[in-house]
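User: I'm new to structure prediction. If I give you an amino acid sequence, what do you actually give back? Let's try with this one:
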Amino acid sequence: MGKVNNRVKTTTDLELKDRLVAINRVTKVTKGGRTFSFAAIVVVGNEDGIVGWGLGKAGEVTAAIAKGVEAAKKNLVKVPVYRGTIPHEQLSKFGGAEVFIKPASHGTGVKAGGAMRAVLESVGITDVLAKSKGSSNPHNLVKATIAALSELRDPLTVAQNRGISVEKVFKG
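Assistant: Good question. You get back a string of structure tokens that encode the predicted 3D arrangement of the chain. For your 172 residues, that looks like this:
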């Protein structure tokens, strides 16, 4: 399978909500003492199929979060959400983090932890089963989750690629 290109071109007229995934305090030791700075991982989404992530670094937490939001708005991805869940199972890796997401029936909720939950809720997915294997590093988990979501294909796209009707996609 080839690389799926579903990047969102423009961020105007989108109501994006941001979620803070993790904050990391970094200490630099100088001859004058210790200098603290902060790195924030932020996920933004319109809860209707669009999501992006960003990393912001600054001397203060609020500035780091603001930079993270701006960075997240620059790499948005469109995700097919079908009746509050995803169209099919997907496995994806980034670094040491491996994620598995699986569609769930209505009323199941978002069964995912930490960084994965923030990404899935920002997309607007309400029912999904998710499993994180390997590393629990928030950076890599967010990237692996967004990679898995960006590889999803809706039934209409599959039908067009195969040159068949949508009904035949489900029959076999």
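You can read the tokens as a compact description of the fold. Here is one thing that stands out. The two ends are 19 Å apart (CA to CA).
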